[in-house]
Design brief:
Blueprint lengths: L23 H15 L5 H29 L8 H20 L5 H17 L4 H12 L4 E4 L2 E4 L4
Antiparallel strand pairs: 1-2
Amino acid sequence: RPEPAGGSSMSNAQVFQDQEYLPTNDLVGGLRQQMYQMLTVAQADEKKIADNLLEALEIGLTVKNIEIWMRNRNLHQPEYQEAQLTKLYEEVDELHTNVKMGKCCLDDCGDVMVVAIGAAMRNGNSGREALLQAFNDIKDRKGRMIDGVFVKEQDL
């Protein structure tokens, strides 16, 4: 059973029913192997397309698994928004610290994304919807880099 939100030492600890995770690695790995068997060496461009599609599938499944993880721990409930926003600030601070120190920040980046997906869920959206909205907001944006920060054309 998963540990309740906030740790097991809480007096109001809850026990959650686990929902099964989606088989991301097995599914994507199996599909990649099958696709490669169907494609010949001469079809290198098709293999790149297949890899991109499988990567997108893997990312989508990972977002779904994060949402399942959130629901399994009840972290998608709106009443946890304030505590989870504090957690987001903590995770961003860890990322900032490790980047400044030149340390690997892969886990920190992932932690920020996990908590941000939870924020989307607590506001009635999915992680996928939040990522799509963010991309659609920026995809055609024009601007300039100023001191390492992208500044929108309208703000120049």
